[in-house]
Amino acid sequence: MATLLYRLGRTAFRRRWLVVLLWAVILGGAGAAAVTAPASSDDGTSFMPGIEAQKAFDLIGERFPGTDANGANARIVFVAPHGGKVTASGNRAAIDALVTEAADAPKVLNAVDPFTAGAVSEDGSTAYATVTYKVKADDLTDADKATLEKAVDQARDTGLTVEVGGTALAEQPAAGGSAEAIGIGLAAVILLITFGSLAAAGLPLLTAVLGVGTSMAAIMALGSVFGLSLTTGTLASMLGLAVGIDYALFVVSRYREERANGHAPREAAGLAVGTAGSAVVFAGLTVVIALAGLTVVGVPMLTKMGLCAAGAVVIAVLVALTLVPALLGMWPDAVLARRTRKGGPVRRAADNAGSRWARFVLRRPVTVLVACVAGLGVLALPAAQLEMGMPGAESKPVSSTERRAYDALANGFGAGFNGPLTIVVDARGAAGAKAAVREIEKRIGTTDGVVSVSSARFNPAGDTALFSAVPATGPNDEHTKDLVRAIRSERAALEQRTGATFEVTGSTAMNIDIAEALQAALVPYLAVIVLLALLLLLVVFRSVLVPVKAAFGFLLSVLAALGSVVAVFQWGWGAGLLGVEQAGPIMSLMPIFLVGIVFGLAMDYEVFLVARMREAYVHGDRAPDAVVSGFRHSARVVVAAAVIMIAVFSGFVGSGESMVKTIGFGLAVAVLFDAFVVRMALVPAVLALLGDKAWWLPGWLDRLLPRVDVEGAGLAAPSRVAGGERAPQDPVHVGRP
Fold this sequence. Notes:
Distance between the termini: 17 Å
CATH superfamily of the largest domain: Multidrug efflux transporter AcrB transmembrane domain
Number of helices: 25
Number of domains: 2
Helix content: 55-70%
CATH topology of the largest domain: Multidrug efflux transporter AcrB transmembrane fold
């Protein structure tokens, strides 16, 4: 591996103009394809096939022609002024006018006024009307929305307080790149401090931006074919930028080190790609494994996001291995320290903060190990209280009309009105469809926890009916989850009596089913990525205990990160500082995202840091000296890389989309814990306690495993200083595993 990448680095350095031209063509071609590609549209794929709520949605689409179960809707809430009543003649006339005007819009399926539907609170202060559209919210034009907004404004002019919930007028998060811009700005400052050179700081940023640009252009170009969107590419943008900067950073840092060792520019580029590039390849593979593993979860959107992000990581690896050495070839001295460029004495890494820290840990391994495990363990405690759900309008800012509509409904009708259950009755097997539906409707209406049920609405064929059941508690309340289970438990008995069956759906039931399905998928997902990554690390480090230690450290950091997410977003500790308006359950998709991505990133730092230790050990250092050597050469760069990732992910905390905000915070704290606690403290402490045993590998397994030479043993041939151009010799074996 090292020898192959060494030759690749030298070739890219020598053929620099060709390499740069090829990447320019790739970027330009992807950009042109993105511009000319048709707009991406929903491919109709179910969000999570197999769960009951999704089956019910699909049944609605099948049995009610022209109705989309995922169609846009608007729940318009009216509050009378100054303690008055909405039933007053003037208020009623304004409400009727609004409903009539909304119903006349071309894409509206129906609009139900509150007086006909009985949607007036007991005290008469509040009412709501429901407008249902034939199409999804994404398919509503500005003109469609303007019609409803105009009607709402006219009603407000009469003195009524009018707020709009639902999806029709919901504010969509901006698709701009402010988060990426913040991350890039912070990364630039960190790189400049780390390298002390504008060129050295700018090169990783430039290559990372080019890589992300290529990835996002490819996603947009393929959007209409595979049902991809900008939301699908959010994770690809986030990870592509972070790892793109980090991977280029490691190659540039190693290039500077090899130049300091006396190698000519072309040789230094080859050695940098052969050594640091090997770590980049395997670090990238671990991230790809974690992201591709999302396919086992069974959520099409997760699969798309994971594969898009995996593609962005692959592009980041290719950029680091080819474009970075090519650009180094164009300005071979520009990335060097200012003193070196001016012909000053070269400073070799003899002793620095990294090596001093390693020696400190080696002297107190037990104390450091206990402190790390105890500290992360305490931070992980809130994870035991994790509640998963799908935060809705209650999590939006109070300045939004959706949040005000939510609060008005809760005050006027009870919290359950914000999460009604939709019951779909399939009466094809019943002797009398209407009688069967009435009996099911009556039985569900008398279930403890149900406040009211609506009148059933039949499809044109008369064999399927829909009605709503309003719970007494809010959408994310545990009692509501128990109610859904209780209603479903009555299905068998009702089917036996009536010959008809039913399914429970709606946003509340959908969120419950998704949370349970994702929780069940978490264990096999973890098993897949951990097993594959352990096998990969076994090949990389040729050690049994080092991969196990890496997995243990990952579990500590990811649980501590998940505990921090629970404390902030669920319990509300410091939530206001992050712009979280309302604490609540953690979005169901977030834990599995966090586990997968953090696993990949944790293995990144493991490969980058421990590869240098393995390299020193293979070349003859004692086990403790190898740890010190690894920290001397890589600690500063690993710290810089981690701070850059934290900066990039922190930029996404400012997102208006709750899932992106939560993932950005979770990833930022996870990198903080993993890089600065696990890799910088726990890893050297464990290696100090294990000594030579850390690198133990059974002889039979040693013979079975392929030799990939990540540590660059094949590049340890007689010195190539001062411009030597000798090709790598066969790997040098120095009596180590």
